[in-house]
Amino acid sequence: MRVIAGKYRSIKLNAVEGMNTRPTTDKIKENLFNMIDCYDCKVLDLFGGTGGLGIEALSRGAKHATFIDGSNNAIKVIKSNIEKCRIDATDYSLYRNDFKRALKIFGKKEEKFDIIFLDPPYDKGLIDEALQCILENNLCNDEALVICEKSNTEEITITDEKLEVIKEKQYGITDIVIFEYMEK
Question: Is the pTM of this model over 0.90?
Fold first, then answer.
């Protein structure tokens, strides 16, 4: 696993030990970032794991990335990957927290994001929960992208007129679904 392109290109990233964290493969990450533009964006990497998606976004010109994960081990790995890339402390925020609690805090602070990555453990219904929390806490700038990585057997059942699917792509057992948020 490595940074694909940009400022931190080719830096190998550490992975979380064990089977609880499943990093996005280089192939999927490369294809995903070819579909989006993250230059000058404020990014949220929810369920951060290794931090690979947020770090890739920073490498490609995002102005700030916020990493959230509930696991101590994941937080340690994200921190080590940030240090490996020598990312400036002003370019990121890193929090160990439950995703629902973190999203509620961001809502109270009226924080908004341009890109939100959702890559939770597969087949646990966490994408629907996270999308609901994102909408309830009003965390998206207009035209923000919410990018979901899920197993191809998991269904996203949440429906909201503010979220429109603009792209879907399947890679083996993994699906990428990109929503655009439109303030109606």
Answer: yes
